[in-house]
């Protein structure tokens, strides 16, 4: 059962849960800011010479242009004032009160969305608050084109455009820690930046699905406290507290502390989850140009391990009760995590800056559970397997870059050069006892099998598996014309994976090694008008594979993507709109053997795969994010994805490649506040969402379901600036559907029935 993550495929479950907008009030701070602004304005008027008559028209035009710019750069409400105390205020979302961002940090250059020739979405802190999003799964379900595929123990797989998505943490790439891994509570993050399509320049070896950059919160130089509490159906409770402010009188040292916890049952029987997260951050402003940040995060969980429901032999729904639970009720997963992060940033002057970021994470996973392995009779009996897994994973990573402008031929150009390192060290071992070898595991009632938790298969084989990759990257943003930018760059990546049998103390075996693999990047952005741009880009990618064939580990996947489209910013950059088309071609992609053989891998018990030859993914995406009118926010996305096997030796050519990847995927969330921005008492708000998708197939192609749609609704009431309450109903029509499809025996999960959630948000 080595490297349990290998070969697990994923699916889509699209549920929205929401909550109302929380507002924060700081009267003294607002009054001081207003007084300072008024004094500065009077002083400027007193010292400014009168304009000449001939210059009046131009002056008025300049004032209007400056006013429009100020609307984007200056806060317009108490909520937005809070962001002024934060570092990187041009990228930070906490306190802005907006769904849109002024820049994203995953590009290192802090570019606007319409300056990036690829599809990028951001889940802001305000959207998290409005929809009461508390988990990474919930947040990524809001992103256009992203599929979230649960594994029944609080973990999930994530795909985009038919391929897996990889993580970054404050810009530091990681080859692990995303799919089939526990995630920290969403309360510690300022935003999630999601790039769809290959990210070979910064990520290194990775699938072409894209990457998610998790950006942590930092301390403010003004005191602030915030607390949220929510409770709902099936005894679901979540609470978090966030306290920040200066730690010294001169505000050179700021800090932040976040504590979050959740306790819940599930709509299906005998399942429970409890987890706690603690996060602490200290920012030391050594000088006006140099900042050092250190943080620590810890999380513990105790989660029931549920492997899902069976399907009929024909792949059809058995129409079981949605609260059905298959397997022993003692199945558990525990994965305590601890992470330490550090950042050192320095501004050199003339627009140049450098940043060094490092991270260290440790995860200890322990699983003991049962799952249905074969035979589902009309009497609902079957044969079971008891599985056990133990693993310790240690992640280390670092990223160093320098970026800034150069002036050449009377034009401004931006340069970036950097390097990063990523290490994933896994100690793991697993074993199982099947009905074939262990008496008492065959012909059992699938809903209440009598299986003793004392059946603990001995883990006789353990492995040490280090994966290391590092690389150097660079890019340039060349201004060909005032409205035309050329982006070009690339990366040289070095990758190595090896393993050692600790049980037998065998020497290390190098299973994969790739040196100096180039991944070029080329893009062109043309601003047709200042707020509308057309773009095209080419990106390259390679990905070492963890899958095994009968003859050994498969060779890396090589691929390319061409993408083009339009991006626009409207209503003074409060609304972002993107229309993109893409074409991805991959060679040597792994495909699961259709005979279901499981005699491959290090232990000879893993699922067998083969190289698929050529796989293609193409389609288009539409996204609208931001504020349509005062008080009216929207997040809308539609994705059409056609992924297909073009060449394969096992007769699958012409069929779709990716399981649980719908051709049509629609996501909508909208929120309206019935008051002007300056009104902060007795304000009502409403919200609504719809998720819809076309039919999909599961890990086993015979398992299928048709199209479905799920809607949610919310009503909120802001009693006063410091207190906001919401009530949300999810799955209004009580639609019956599967949020993920697997095999005939397991990994099939119903979506949540109609549920209710009440939440309270307070700010001080």
Q: Can you offer a commentary on this structure?
A:
This protein is mostly beta strands and about 775 residues long. The protein is about 10% helix and about 50% strand. It is built from six helices and 40 strands. The protein has a 24-stranded antiparallel β-sheet that branches. Strands 1-7-8-5-6 form a five-stranded mixed β-sheet. A three-stranded antiparallel β-sheet has the order 2-3-4, with no helix packed on it. The longest helix has 21 residues, at about 25-45. The protein is globular. The two termini are about 50 Å apart.
Which key features would you list for this structure?
764 residues; mainly beta; 24-stranded antiparallel sheet; 5-stranded mixed sheet; 6 helices; 51% strand; globular; disordered N terminus
In a nutshell, what does this entry contain?
By secondary structure, the chain is mainly beta. The chain is built from six helices and 40 strands. 48% of the residues are buried.
Shape descriptor reads: globular
Say what oligomer this is. Answer: single chain
Give the DSSP E fraction (strand runs of 2 or more residues).
over 45%
For the biggest sheet, the summary is: 24 strands, antiparallel
Radius of gyration: 26 Å
Report the uncertain regions: 1-89
The percent of residues in helical segments reads under 10%
Class computed from helices, strands and strand pairing: mainly beta
Number of helices: 6
Layout of strands and helices, then pairs:
Layout: H1 27-47, H2 56-73, H3 78-81, E1 119-123, H4 125-130, H5 136-140, E2 146-150, E3 156-160, E4 163-164, E5 166-169, E6 172-173, E7 189-196, H6 200-203, E8 210-216, E9 224-232, E10 236-246, E11 253-265, E12 272-285, E13 290-304, E14 332-334, E15 337-349, E16 352-374, E17 381-408, E18 411-434, E19 444-445, E20 463-481, E21 484-501, E22 509-529, E23 532-543, E24 548-549, E25 552-553, E26 557-570, E27 575-587, E28 590-592, E29 609-611, E30 614-629, E31 632-647, E32 664-673, E33 683-693, E34 696-697, E35 704-705, E36 708-720, E37 723-730, E38 738-740, E39 749-750, E40 755-763
Parallel strand pairs: 5-8
Antiparallel strand pairs: 1-7, 2-3, 3-4, 5-6, 7-8, 9-10, 9-40, 10-11, 11-12, 12-13, 13-14, 13-15, 14-16, 15-16, 16-17, 17-18, 17-19, 18-20, 20-21, 21-22, 22-23, 23-26, 24-25, 26-27, 27-30, 28-29, 30-31, 31-32, 32-33, 33-36, 34-35, 36-37, 37-40, 38-39
Biased composition (Low complexity): 43-59
Region (Disordered): 43-73
Signal peptide: 1-30
């Amino acid at each position: 059962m080595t490297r349990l993550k290998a070969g697990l495929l994923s699916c889509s479950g699209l549920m929205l849960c929401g909550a109302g907008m929380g507002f924060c009030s700081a009267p003294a701070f607002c009054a001081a800011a207003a007084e300072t602004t008024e004094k500065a304005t009077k002083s400027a008027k007193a010292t400014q010479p009168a304009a000449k008559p001939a210059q009046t028209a131009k002056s008025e035009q300049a004032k209007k242009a400056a006013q429009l710019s100020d609307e984007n750069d200056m806060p317009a409400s108490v909520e937005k004032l809070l962001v002024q105390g934060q570092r990187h205020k041009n990228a930070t979302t906490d306190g802005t009160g907006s769904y849109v961002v002024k820049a994203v940090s995953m590009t290192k250059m802090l570019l606007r969305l319409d300056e990036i020739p690829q599809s990028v979405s951001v889940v802001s802190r305000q959207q998290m608050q409005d929809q009461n999003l508390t988990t990474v799964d919930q947040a990524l379900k809001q992103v256009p084109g992203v599929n979230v595929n649960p594994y029944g123990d609080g973990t999930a797989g994530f795909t985009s455009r038919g391929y897996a998505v990889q993580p970054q943490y404050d810009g530091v790439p990681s080859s692990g820690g995303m799919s089939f891994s526990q995630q920290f509570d969403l309360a510690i993050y300022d935003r999630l930046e999601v790039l769809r399509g290959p990210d070979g320049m910064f990520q290194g070896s990775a699938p072409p699905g894209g990457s998610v950059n998790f950006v942590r919160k930092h301390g403010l130089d003004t005191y602030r406290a915030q607390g949220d509490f929510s409770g709902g159906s099936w005894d679901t409770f979540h609470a978090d507290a966030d306290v920040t402010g200066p730690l010294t009188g001169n505000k050179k040292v700021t800090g932040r502390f976040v504590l979050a916890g959740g306790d819940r049952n599930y709509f299906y029987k005998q399942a429970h989850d409890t987890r706690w997260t603690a996060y602490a951050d200290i920012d030391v402003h050594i000088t006006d140009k140099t900042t050092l940040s250190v943080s620590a995060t810890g999380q513990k969980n105790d989660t029931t391990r549920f492997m899902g429901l069976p399907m009929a032999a024909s792949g059809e729904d058995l129409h079981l009760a949605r609260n059905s639970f298959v397997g022993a009720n003692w199945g558990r997963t525990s994965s305590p995590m601890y992470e330490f992060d550090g950042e050192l940033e320095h501004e050199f002057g003339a627009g140049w800056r450098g940043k060094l970021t490092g991270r260290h994470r440790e995860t200890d996973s322990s699983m003991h559970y049962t799952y249905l392995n074969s035979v589902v009779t009309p009497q609902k009996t079957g044969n079971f397997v008891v599985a056990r897994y133990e693993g310790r994973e240690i992640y280390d990573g670092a990223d160093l870059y320098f970026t800034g402008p150069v002036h050449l031929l009377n034009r401004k150009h931006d340069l970036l050069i950097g390097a990063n390192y990523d290490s994933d060290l896994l100690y793991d071992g697993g074993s199982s006892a099947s009905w074939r070898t262990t008496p008492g595991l065959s012909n059992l009632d699938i809903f209440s099998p009598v299986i003793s938790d004392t059946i603990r298969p001995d883990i006789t084989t353990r492995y040490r598996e280090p994966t290391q990759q590092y690389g150097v990257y660079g890019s340039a943003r060349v201004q060909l014309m005032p409205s035309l930018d050329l982006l070009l760059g690339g990366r040289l990546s070095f990758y190595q994976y090896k393993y050692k049998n600790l049980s037998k103390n065998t020497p290390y075996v190098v299973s994969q090694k790739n040196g100096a693999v180039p991944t070029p990047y080329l893009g062109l952005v043309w601003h047709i008008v200042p707020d509308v741009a057309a773009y095209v880009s080419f990106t390259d990618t390679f990905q070492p594979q963890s899958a095994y064939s009968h003859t050994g580990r498969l060779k890396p996947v090589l691929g390319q993507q061409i993408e083009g489209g339009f991006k626009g910013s409207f209503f003074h950059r409060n609304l972002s709109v993107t229309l993109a088309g893409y074409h991805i071609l991959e060679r040597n992609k792994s495909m699961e053997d259709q005979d279901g053989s499981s005699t491959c891998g290090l232990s000879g018990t893993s699922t067998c795969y083969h190289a698929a030859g050529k796989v293609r993914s193409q389609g288009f995406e539409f996204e609208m994010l931001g504020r349509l009118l005062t008080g009216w926010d929207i997040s809308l996305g539609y994705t059409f994805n056609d992924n297909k096997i073009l060449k394969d030796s096992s007769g699958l050519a012409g069929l779709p490649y990716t399981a649980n990847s719908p051709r049509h995927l629609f996501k909508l969330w909208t929120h309206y506040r019935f008051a002007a921005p300056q009104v902060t008492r007795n304000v009502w708000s409403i919200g609504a969402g719809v998720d819809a998708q076309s039919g999909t197939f599961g890990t086993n192609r015979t398992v299928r379901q048709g199209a479905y749609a799920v809607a949610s609704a919310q009503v909120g009431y802001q009693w006063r600036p410091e207190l906001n309450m919401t009530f949300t109903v999810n799955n209004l029509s009580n639609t019956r559907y599967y949020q993920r499809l697997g095999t005939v025996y397991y990994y099939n999960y119903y979506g949540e029935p109609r549920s209710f959630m009440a939440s309270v948000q307070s700010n001080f």
